[in-house]
């Protein structure tokens, strides 16, 4: 736990802050906050009647189960407490998903901050309302479609079911199938054999599952109410949007339509707002004023259609204005908007124009019948919410623009493998906000953006600026090895153990660039491999000292430039070294892993590694090569303990002894220096051992070689001081911790692999014996 907290400290702080906010809210407003819609949900408990204004997904999937689990009969405090816990888990889930997709720890943590710390989010969780469940389902759909890379039909179908359920929670989810299908058509083409048939099949699976839920619910409504519908609403939603802009005198209206066209001037209608006209026929006395038998729902529907056809500019401009309101820097309210204070903490219990006796009646029915507001805590919450405790709309807008820029290929996005992943949350967010704006503007309807837009923005920024580990040595290949939708690559089938992390998107980009520069040109039998990052000041002298032959064999030099920000690559090319340029800095281990594969694929027989900083004496190269040529060893490594070291760092020297003792004790083979970087090996050795570390790879390679039973030989060598530049390894304590983790982790992994291989051999022998016995009889 301590290790997890250190690694994810920013997330831990945000979770602590979010939990504190929710505890304060729980204490400030007891037992819960009830809104107008809350009573509809409560009234439907146990009945689950689909003919109401809202579909019944919230009651069935969340409210009903929570009320059943409540320690007391319908304890509202338990329900909202559970919702608060789900809200915290929602933030953590965003973090986990983004880390899975290769986003850095700090950026992933900031992306979940809106859900964890936004007071409007906390307030809605304290209500008996469906919004939190809708957010959870949206995140679930995003996770399903991106977690395992480009989705196949089965995963797409599961995501379609989740999106279908979101419609049963909030009708605004009905349009979300569109961006989901677009994403699937794009992402499915990135799978192996991902042609158009594959894309269409995956999209069809998504759509079929979505329709199965939505249409199935429609038939359930038909069997219950006699109408095929998703809710009992009429055309009042579209009517409200058109009523505030309708030019009744200029429209060719029927007598029925004239009745529902408002008499007030347009300016007065817009002051009253869309919400007023959506519910106008529910106000007391309005229905009584209509002619007997008048079908106002049909009149509303036909009236709205005429307004849309004759005044499309007025309708669309109103929708666009309401869509853009969500990106305002502060929480503002325009004339006609749904009142903002409905979503703000109040100093007294908010009844929202509902008679207090009516609220108390529900409290008597489902709770203990008491309300309590701690004014001091409520005052603090309100102050927090109105001052800085919300996510500025401009921040959400910038995140949306960042995801759009990534989709367009800005910066490093074209090579990131994240462009399709950006499309999904950005598309879902834009669609759900646009659909809500088509009805009316309310800050409540902006809450899905707190989940989707930070995900989209974090992915977009990662794509544009490059995916890098949070530290130079502590990350595994998970952070850099990705599929086209951004997820870390999973272990491949066992062509060799090394293929568990190779090649990823970055590797492929570097190999393509190398092939464009050198064509199919092969290597000499011996390749000296150098991984270099920002070594322009030192690498020239190292390359100048490289021999063209050694032990009677030709020697080529290969420099893998690991995302350097200086002129290392240009210096290497100028000194006639084969140069492979990696666009993203990932660490020495990842660079060497790429170099091993490149050397093996282009004909090298032996590969020797040395550093770009001049700390190894290239004149000692024959000592490494000759035992390999004579087949006395498969892997030859230098040892500063058998030779000499010019370093004055006593702690590093002590670490050399300690790690050598640990590896020797655990492998049963004497090793004096586990981290000497000047090594020679047969090329198949480097490409067989499983290599995952982006840094501290020297110990991983040595331990892996020993575990595979290769013949290892140590030779006395010299460790020189750096000729220029500075070490990239960090301070001694951090270096020692990370190095220990790699050594012990590799030993543990190889032991498990050996146990698995041994069990496989036993199983094979048993199978062979069984087959022989069967054949004998």
TrEMBL record:
Family, per entry: Belongs to the glycosyltransferase 2 family.
Limits of the Glycosyltransferase 2-like domain: 528-686
Keyword Transferase in annotation: yes
Regions crossing the membrane: 76-97, 132-149, 155-188, 200-220, 388-408, 420-439, 445-466
CDD domains according to UniProt: DPM_DPG-synthase_like (cd04179)
Organism: Allosaccharopolyspora coralli
Database matches in InterPro entries: Glyco_trans_2-like, Glycosyltransferase_2, Nucleotide-diphossugar_trans
Amino acid composition bias (Basic and acidic residues), ranges on this chain: 754-764
Regions of compositional bias (Polar residues) in chain numbering: 767-777
Name listed for the protein in its UniProt record: Glycosyltransferase
SUPFAM superfamilies per record: Nucleotide-diphospho-sugar transferases (SSF53448)
Record keywords, A-Z: Membrane, Transferase, Transmembrane, Transmembrane helix
Organism lineage: Bacteria, Bacillati, Actinomycetota, Actinomycetes, Pseudonocardiales
Start and end residues of each stretch annotated as Disordered: 472-501, 754-777
PANTHER family, per database record: RFBJ PROTEIN, UNDECAPRENYL-PHOSPHATE 4-DEOXY-4-FORMAMIDO-L-ARABINOSE TRANSFERASE-RELATED
Molecular function, one GO term: transferase activity
């Amino acid at each position: 736990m301590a290790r997890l907290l250190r690694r994810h400290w920013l997330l831990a702080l945000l979770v602590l802050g979010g939990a504190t906010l929710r505890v304060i809210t729980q204490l400030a407003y007891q037992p819960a906050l009830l809104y107008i819609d809350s009573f509809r949900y409560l009234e439907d408990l146990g009945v689950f009647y689909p003919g109401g204004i809202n579909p019944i997904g919230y009651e069935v999937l969340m409210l009903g189960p929570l009320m059943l689990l409540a320690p007391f009969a319908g304890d509202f405090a338990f329900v909202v407490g559970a919702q608060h816990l789900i809200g915290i888990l929602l933030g953590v889930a965003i973090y986990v998903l983004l880390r899975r997709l290769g986003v850095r720890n700090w950026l992933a943590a900031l992306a979940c901050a809106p859900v964890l710390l936004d007071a409007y989010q906390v307030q809605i969780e304290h209500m008996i309302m469906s919004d939190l469940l809708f957010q959870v389902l949206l995140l679930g759909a995003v996770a399903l479609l991106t977690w395992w890379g480009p989705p196949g039909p089965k995963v797409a179908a599961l995501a379609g079911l989740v999106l279908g359920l979101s419609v049963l929670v909030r009708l605004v989810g009905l349009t979300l199938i569109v961006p989901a299908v677009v994403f699937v058509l794009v992402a499915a083409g990135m799978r192996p054999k991902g042609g158009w048939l594959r894309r269409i099949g995956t999209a069809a699976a998504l759509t079929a599952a979505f329709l199965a839920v939505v249409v199935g619910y429609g038939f359930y409504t038909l069997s219950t109410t006699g109408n095929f519908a998703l809710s009992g609403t009429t055309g009042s939603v579209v009517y409200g949007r058109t009523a505030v802009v309708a030019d009744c005198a200029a429209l060719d209206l029927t007598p029925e339509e004239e009745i529902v066209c408002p008499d007030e001037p347009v300016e007065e209608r817009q002051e009253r707002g869309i919400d007023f006209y959506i519910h106008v026929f529910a106000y007391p006395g309005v229905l009584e004023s209509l002619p007997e038998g008048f079908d106002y729902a049909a009149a509303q529907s036909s009236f709205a259609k005429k307004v849309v056809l004759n005044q499309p500019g007025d309708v669309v401009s109103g929708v666009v204005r309401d869509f853009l309101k969500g990106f305002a820097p502060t929480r503002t309210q325009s004339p006609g908007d749904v009142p903002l204070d409905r979503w703000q903490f109040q100093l007294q219990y908010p009844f929202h124009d509902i008679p207090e006796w009516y609220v108390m009646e529900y409290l008597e029915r489902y709770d203990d019948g008491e309300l309590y507001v701690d004014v001091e805590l409520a005052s603090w919450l309100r102050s927090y919410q109105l001052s800085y405790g919300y996510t500025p709309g401009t921040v959400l807008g910038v995140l949306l623009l960042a995801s759009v820029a990534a989709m367009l290929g800005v910066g490093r996005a074209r090579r990131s493998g994240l462009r399709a992943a950006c499309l999904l949350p950005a598309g879902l967010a834009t669609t759900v906000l646009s659909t809500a704006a088509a009805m009316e503007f309310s800050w409540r309807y902006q809450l899905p953006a707190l989940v989707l837009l930070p995900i989209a923005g974090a992915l977009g920024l990662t794509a544009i600026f490059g995916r890098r580990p949070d530290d130079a040595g502590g990350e595994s290949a998970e952070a850099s090895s990705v599929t086209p939708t951004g997820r870390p690559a999973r272990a491949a089938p066992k062509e060799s153990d090394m293929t568990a992390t190779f090649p990823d998107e970055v590797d492929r980009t570097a190999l393509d660039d190398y092939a464009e520069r050198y064509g199919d040109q092969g290597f000499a039998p011996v390749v000296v491999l150098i991984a270099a990052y920002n070594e322009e000041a030192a690498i020239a002298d190292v390359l100048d000292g490289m021999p063209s032959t050694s032990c009677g064999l030709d020697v080529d030099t290969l420099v893998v430039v690991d995302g350097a920000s200086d002129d290392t690559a240009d210096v290497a090319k100028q000194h006639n070294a084969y140069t492979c340029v990696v666009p993203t800095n990932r660490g020495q281990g990842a660079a060497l892993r790429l170099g091993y594969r490149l050397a093996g694929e282009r004909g090298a027989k032996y590969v020797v590694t040395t550093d770009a900083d001049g700390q190894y004496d290239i004149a000692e190269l024959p000592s490494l090569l000759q035992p390999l040529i004579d087949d006395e060893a498969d892997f030859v490594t230098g040892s500063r303990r058998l030779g000499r070291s010019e370093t004055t760092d006593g702690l590093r020297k002590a670490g050399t002894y300690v790690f050598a003792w640990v590896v020797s004790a655990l492998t049963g083979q004497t090793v004096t220096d586990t981290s000497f970087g000047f090594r020679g090996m047969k090329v198949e050795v480097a490409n067989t051992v499983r290599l995952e570390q982006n840094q501290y790879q020297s110990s991983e390679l040595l331990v892996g070689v020993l575990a595979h039973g290769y013949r290892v030989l140590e030779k006395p060598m010299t460790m020189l001081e750096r000729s220029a530049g500075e070490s990239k390894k960090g301070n001694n304590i951090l270096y020692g911790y990370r190095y220990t983790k790699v050594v012990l982790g590799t030993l543990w992994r190889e032991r498990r692999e050996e146990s698995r291989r041994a069990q496989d051999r036993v199983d094979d022998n048993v199978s062979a014996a069984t087959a022989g016995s069967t054949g004998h009889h």
